[in-house]
Sequence to fold (395 residues):
Amino acid sequence: MRVLVVGSGGREHALVWSLSRSESLGELHAAPGNPGIAKLAHCHPVRADDHVALVSLARELRIDLVVVGPEAPLVAGLADELRHRGIAVFGPSAAAARIEGSKSFAKEVMEAAGVPTARALPVARPPCVVKIDGLAAGKGVWVCRTQEELDAALPAAEALGRPFGVEELLEGPELSVFAVAAGEAAVAFPPARDYKRIGDGDEGPNTGGMGSFSPLPDVPDDAAEQIVELVHLPVLHELARRGTPFQGLLYAGLMQTDAGLRVIEFNCRFGDPETQALLPRLEGDLVPLLAGDLSQAPQLSDRAAVTIVLAGDGYPERSDRGTPIEGVEDAEATGALVLHAGTALHGGKLVTNGGRILNVVGLGTTVEEARTAAYDAAGRIDFAGMQFRSDIASG
Ligand code: AMP
Ligand code: GLY
Fold:
């Protein structure tokens, strides 16, 4: 089977790493990929938002399956364009991807499907959460516990010039549950947890994600099946009922509140960086699963995985480019997996190229062991302005 992965981040590197271990894989391609992906797949200089060029690339390479990593091309209809030309794709149609692309659509679908979520509030009054309606790369959400926070959030949301909503503030531990879905059928990955705030102790602004781990001490791996019954399947039925069945990865961001499980958001693709803490545990073959064979749920090992995101100077406000990166080989020599997220090669030298630069994944028999392995490896990497959280997977 010839597979093309679309995207260039740490999630796509994890997908490529996992696909490259498959027995059913023939050729592996990526567009555009990154220097880490280039060690495992043929990279093509085609951007994820250039649909015309991606369709011709897939035809030229006689690709059997396109795996789309990021949400933006899915929301913009890349999967539809590929399918119209007879190319199989892992990723939903634009109509089904609205479950991520529009928070108000997601709320409407959840209400129709009877899936518990935060209530929309008619007036903005603390405590509450202000949310941009469309895609915002994890940066369109303001959690307001005080009037002061709300007074800062409202102008910031208005300044983006896009519709936004206000909803009830939920409290409790968060978890992410991924289901591989084909219409009304779905199989679950075990729960994972990510860390969205930039600073230790969940301080500071939201980011695209600063770390992740699995398994979770408070939610066993096998709880995912019941969560899929409660949350994902009703939404999949509702989308199918509306004539827009979902094919691909349906990601539920959940909160375990005192009143029970609540959905915070749905995403229409693998989560970043949770994928980087799930796929390294995968024992089965990823290719058949993404190609639509849901006869078996993904089999994960009992090992634990902890992923530390190394971000660049100024993140999340700005990106960093061209800063030399040292120590990746030393980190890999410890046995850790180093996934590239925002890197580039300048004259053969690895440099920063984005906000989140690298993901370091440690594995171990316990979360504690995996965490020690991840931080030990991360400590061997260095670049000017490097920032990371020191409390990933520590409770
Ligand atoms: P979202 O982009 O909807 O995933 O929101 C990003 C993050 O904001 C979530 O992971 C939560 O940490 C936080 N958040 C979003 N909605 C709520 C809510 N209703 N109550 C509490 N926290 C929330
Ligand atoms: N981990 C958050 C996201 O992928 O949106």
